[in-house]
Design a protein that fits this description.
The structure is a homopentamer. By secondary structure, chain A is an alpha/beta fold. Chain A has 14 helices and 10 strands. The two termini of chain A are about 25 Å apart.
C-alpha cells in the first residue's frame, strides 16, 4: 500500500495524533475503490437500534443478518463499515481484516423520552474487535448536550491513547432548536465546528438546508455576504467551518428518498468539497443488487466519473 | 531568558506552588513583546465553541483556519495563545515551542439551555500538547456554580501537581443576577476574589461598569467612601480584591466595538494597574493587518508607550 | 512545649483518634496566649467567599491582603488561623510554622440559589500547605443536608487517616427552619450534637438564643425543667449536648456589633464553659490596632483575667 | 511561635519544598531550648534494633521503657526525638504534641550478614503517629548501596508529597572502604554530598577523622591546599560539601566515650558551623541525671554559652 | 521565539512524539546563544555524585554551591543545565524559567562495586521542578546493562507520555570490554545506535578514539573502507550510526584537560557534524572567569566563528 500524496496531506492535518491513530486513518483512507483519493464512502448500520428492526430491515429481509452488511460494504468497495457492538461481534471473526470497521459506542432508541443516548461499547471492545475507529453521537442543543460531550471526551482521549481514530456524529436537536433548525446551514456549520473542537478526526453531519436558524449567525453571514444559495455552496461552508478543511467531514444521506434524489444530493456534496458520504438506509433497505448499483454510482461520483 | 526583577516579584507571590508551575508562569510572563514587564496580552479563541463559527469567523474568513490564530498571536508578539482542544490539536506540532499555550478545558455553546459548560479537555491533554497552563470558566451566581467550582478544583489540583499554571475565567451570570449585575463593579470584584480563593494563578474578568448590584456591598462601599467613578479606579478596586495584587488579573475586551473604544478602555485598564488584556473577537474579527495594528497599539499601551 | 494536664484531659476524650490527629489537636491547644489552658480563639477568614470582598474588607482595606490575616492571628497570640484554599496558598510559605492553620474546604457565596456549598479544597491540599486541620460547613435542615454530611464524612475519614484534625461548622438553615430557629437553643444544641455524631473534633456553632424551635424539644426541656434563661446557661446546655463536654466546641461572634456587645457575649460564652471563640468579621473589619485590642481582651476573658 | 530570621533563612534554602514540609522543618527548628537559633540537638534511639537491648539499655535499665526516651528528650529541651516504629507506637499518644518526632524507617541488626537494612516503617505510619519527619539510613559504598538509595527515593518522594521532612543518615561502609575509610574526611564529605543530592532535608553523618581514603580525593584536596588539620576545619569542609551550607547537617556523637571527650568533640563540631548534634548512646546509657547534665552542656555549646 | 527552519527540520525527525515533547526539545534548541542553530552546549553537573565533592569542586570552591552552576549555565548562554535531584531542588525556584533543565535520574558513585547506578529521581520530580527533559545513563556491556535499559524504558515511556524529552548518556563499560574499548569508535557508534534504538531524543556519548574493539566490526569497516583516521571522520561515523543524523547527538568533553586540548577536540567534533557538546568538569573546575571564556569559545566554534 503506497500512501498517496493526497492521503499524506490529509494525515498531516492530524498534527497531534500518534502514528497509531494515523495508521488507522490511513487504513480507512486507503481502503476500497476510493482508496488513496482522499474521499470515502462508509456504510453505517445502527438503524436497528435507533428505529427498531422492522422499520430498518423488513424492506429487505436479508439485512436482518449482520453478515449481510459486512459483505455489502466489502462487495461495494467501500472504505469502512460502522456498526454497534452486537453487529460487529456477530461478524468480526468471519470478516477479520476484510474491511476497516468503526465501533459505534452509543445509540438512542425510538422509545427515548430524552435527547440522550446509551453508551454501550468501549474502547477495549474496539481493540478486541479489530476496529480502526470508534464512533460516537452528540446532540448539540439538547438539554444533556454537555454530558454527551463529556462522555465523548473520555472515550476519545482513551481511543487516541491506544492509536484508534475517532468519528463523531454531530446531530443538533432538542433545546430551543426548531425542527427546521436541526439541519439549518448555520447550525450544521456549528455542529461540524463543535465536533472539530471536541477533537474528532472524522466528522459526520447532515447535508444543510438553506434555512438559517440563529439571528446572530444570520446577521454575520449576511454582513459577510456568504452565498449559501446552493447545496454545493453550503457544503463548502461546512467544510470551512471544520477548521478550513483540516478535518475530514462526511455527510449522511438523510431520510430514504428516491435514487435520483440521493445521487443528485451527493453530486452537490462532492462538488462542495466534502470528503465523502455515509449511506445507511438508502443502501441496505434496497435489494442487494440495487444497493450495489447505487453504491457503485456514488463511488463513481467521488471518483469524478459520474 | 534572564528573568526580570519585576517577574521575580510576581512569581514570589505564588508561595505554595512548585517550581514547575512557576516555570510555566515565567514562560508566559517572559514571552513576547511584553516579556519581562509583568504585563501580558493573551489571544483567546474559544468563540467558535461559544457562538459558532459564523458569528466568530465570517467577518474575517482566514480565521476559520486554526493556524491563523497561532500565527497571529506569534506575529503580534503576544504572551500566550488560549484555545480549546481541537484548535490546539490542529496546530500544536507546527507551532511547537513557538508561543506558550493555554488549553481551555470547558466551554458552553449558544444552544445551551443551562448556565453550565462541557468539560472536554484534560490535564493530560495539556501535557501532551505542550501547554503552559490550563484554562477553565466558572459562572458565579449560576445554579450550577458550585458544581463548576468543584470541577475546577479537581482539574486545578491535578494541574498544579504536574507543574502547570491555572487560568480561571470568572464570569458571573445566572441565579439572581440582573443582566447589568453581570458586569457590576461589586460583582466583578467578587468574581476576581472567588477565583483567587479557588486557587487560580491567572484570573480573567470583564471590565467592571459603575453599577453596584448588591445592596450590602453598596452600603459597605459607600461607608468606606470607595471611589469607583472611573474605569481606572474600578480596575484598581478589582486588583485589590484579587489579594491586594498578589494574583495576576487580566481583563477581556468584551463585545466587539470600534477601535478607539477598545483602546480607550485598555488605557484605563492599564492605568488601573491590571496585569493585562485578553483580546479575542476584537482582534481576529478584523483583517490580519488591522488586527496586528490594533494589537501593536495595545502592547504599546502596556509598555507605557501609547 | 510541655503539654498541660488540662490539654491532656481534653486529648484523652478523642479516644479513637490516632496520635497524629491528637498531635495536631495539641498543636492548636498549645499554641498562642491561651496555649495549655484548654481554651482557644481562632481567626477565620472565609467571609470574602461568603459575602464578597467589598462587604468583608472595604471597612479595613489592609485586610484585602492575605498576609494581613496571618499576621493578625500571630500578633494577637491566637491558637489558629482558618481560611480557604487561596488565602492559605498566598501566605503558607511566608508563615510556615508560625501558627497552626485550618484549611476550610467548602464555602458558599452570596449569589447562591441553594443552601449548599462548593467543596474546593482537599485533604492533600491541607497536607501540602502544612495545616493542622481541615474545616467544613454543614447546614442541618437544608434540602442538601445529607449530601453535605456525606461529603464531610469522606473528607473527615480521609483527614483522620493522615493524622489531621477536623473542624465542623454546624449551621442550621433551610428546610422547615424559621429564621429565628436557625439560632434557637434546641436547634443549636442539636447542631452541636450532630457535629459530634458526625465525628468532628472541634465544633463551631453560633451562640444560641432563648428561642426554642421544635415542639417536641420544647416539651422535653420544659418537662426536665432545663433553665435556659441566660446565654451562660444555654452555652452550658450546648456543651452538654456535645457529648457532655467530651468534644471541643467554639462559638462564633456572629454579625459585627459594638465592642461591648461582643465582649459581653463572650464573657457569657466563657462562663458557660465553652472552649473558646472563633472571631472573624468582628476582628478584621476594625483597624488592626482596634482588632488587637479587642482580641487581647477576648484572650484575657478566656484566661479569666477580664 | 514567631519564626526567627535565622530559621527563615534556613527554610528559604528548601526552594522546591511545599509549605507543609517547611512547616515540619520549622517545627523541629523552633522547638526546644535551641528553638529559633538554627541549631538543633536530636535524641535518636534505634540502638536497640542495631545492637540489641542488652548492649543498648543494660547500662541504664530505665531506658528499656520507650517512655523514658520521650521524657528525656522533652526534659532536656531537645529539638526532636527519632526512633523506629515500635518505640514511637509505644509512646505517641502519651506524648502527642510534646516534641517533634522522626520515624526511622529502616534499621539493621547485629546479626546482619550483609550491609543492608530492613525497611519496616512507612510514610503512612509517620502521619498516623504525628511525626514531623521520616528518617532513613543508606550505606554509601556497600554492595547494596544503590538499592538502599532507591528505597530512600521512593519513601522520600512520598513523604515530600504529604508535607513531611526527610532525614537521611549517610553512613559509608562496605565495598572497598577500609574501616578507617568509613569516617575519613573525604568519604564523610562525599556521604554528606550524596545525601544532599538524594534530596534529604536534614543530613546526619559522623564526625570526620583526618584520614583521607581515596587517592583522587587526596590529590584534589592537596592541590587545592584544603586545610583539614582540625576537626573544626573538617566539619566546615563537610558543611561546604552539603551544598555550601544550604542543607542542614547534624553530626552523631559516635561511639560512647567519656563526657569530656564528647563535649570537646561537640565544641569543635559547633565551631565548624554544623547545625547540631544527634546524640544517642552517649546520653541514654548514662543515668537520667547525668544525661540531662550532659545534654544541658551540649545545648549550651550550641547556644554559644559553654 | 520564532522557531528557525533548522530547528523545525530537527523536530520533524521526532515523528512519533507528541507536541509536548517537541515543545520541550524546542525549548532546549531555541535557548541561549546557540538557540535556533540546531547546535547545543549543555552544562552537566553530576560529578559530585560520581566522583565526590572533593574531586569535583575543590579545584574551584564556589562550585560547591548549587546556585553557582545555574548561574554559570545562564551567563555562558548555554542551552540547558543537567543535574541530579538535590542540585535542582536547591535552585529550581530561584531560577524558575531562566534556563531549560534536565533532571538526571540515575548516578553511580566512586565506591561502586558493580557497574550499575542508583535511580533516585522520577518523572514526577521532573514535572514539579519544571524540567524540560529527564536524563539517564546506561552502561552497554555491563553485567547489569539489560536491567539499566529496562529501567530506562519505563522512565522514558512515562516521560514521553507527559511531554518531556529524554536524554540518554550511553557509556559502554564492564563485561568483556577492554578499557580502550570503552571509547573505541565501533563501540561508541554502537552505543549511540543503542541509545537511538532505546528511544532517546538526545544522545550523549564520548568522543571516539581510532581503536576498533570488536573483530567483526573491524572486518566490516575495513571491507567497506570506512575512513576513521581523524576525530572529525569518527564523529561523522557516530552521527551516521544515530539514525543517519535523525537523532541529536552531543559529545562529552571527557577528563579535564588543557584549554587548547578541549577546544581542538570540539573543533573536530563540530566539523564532524555533531549537534553539540556537554561540558562539565572542564568548565566548572576552572575559575568562573576562565570557564566563561572557555564556554564562549566553544559556543563560537558551534556558531562557526572560532
Amino acid at each position: 500500500m503506497r500512501i498517496t500524496q493526497r492521503v499524506k496531506r490529509i494525515l498531516a492535518n492530524y498534527e497531534s495524533d500518534c502514528p497509531g491513530t494515523k495508521t488507522n486513518l490511513a487504513r480507512i483512507l486507503m481502503h476500497g475503490r476510493l482508496g488513496g483519493t482522499g474521499k470515502m464512502v462508509i456504510l453505517p448500520v445502527d438503524q436497528g437500534f435507533e428505529h427498531g428492526p422492522d422499520r430498518s430491515f423488513a424492506p429487505n429481509p436479508p439485512a436482518y443478518d449482520p453478515h449481510y452488511h459486512y459483505q455489502l460494504a466489502i462487495d461495494a468497495g467501500l472504505n469502512a463499515y460502522a456498526a454497534p457492538l452486537g453487529m460487529l461481534e456477530a461478524g468480526a471473526d468471519s470478516f477479520a481484516g476484510a474491511i476497516p470497521t468503526i465501533l459505534k459506542l452509543n445509540s438512542s432508541d425510538s422509545h427515548a423520552t430524552v435527547k440522550d443516548q446509551a453508551v454501550y461499547g468501549s474502547v477495549q471492545d474496539a481493540l478486541r474487535l479489530g476496529c480502526s475507529a470508534i464512533g460516537f453521537t452528540i446532540y448539540p442543543g439538547a438539554d444533556d448536550q454537555f454530558e454527551m460531550m463529556e462522555e465523548f471526551r473520555e472515550l476519545s482521549e482513551e481511543a487516541k491513547a491506544v492509536g484508534l481514530a475517532v468519528v463523531l456524529w454531530s446531530y443538533p436537536r432538542g433545546g430551543d432548536l426548531s425542527k427546521a433548525g436541526e439541519t439549518a446551514v448555520d447550525v450544521t456549520a456549528y455542529a461540524a465546528h463543535l465536533a472539530a473542537l471536541l477533537g474528532a478526526h472524522i466528522i459526520k453531519v447532515k447535508p444543510p438546508t438553506d434555512h438559517v436558524e440563529q439571528d446572530e449567525a444570520k446577521k454575520a453571514l449576511e454582513k459577510a455576504k456568504v452565498d449559501l444559495s446552493t447545496l454545493e455552496k453550503r457544503i463548502a461552508h461546512v467544510m470551512q467551518s471544520a477548521f478550513a478543511g483540516r478535518r475530514i467531514v462526511v455527510f449522511s444521506g438523510g431520510a430514504a428518498k428516491g435514487t435520483e434524489g440521493v445521487l443528485e444530493e451527493i453530486r452537490q456534496i462532492a462538488a462542495g468539497g466534502a470528503n465523502g458520504s455515509i449511506i445507511g438506509r438508502n443502501s441496505f433497505q434496497r435489494s442487494r443488487e440495487d444497493a450495489l448499483a447505487l453504491l457503485d454510482t456514488i463511488v463513481k461520483i467521488y471518483q469524478g466519473k459520474a
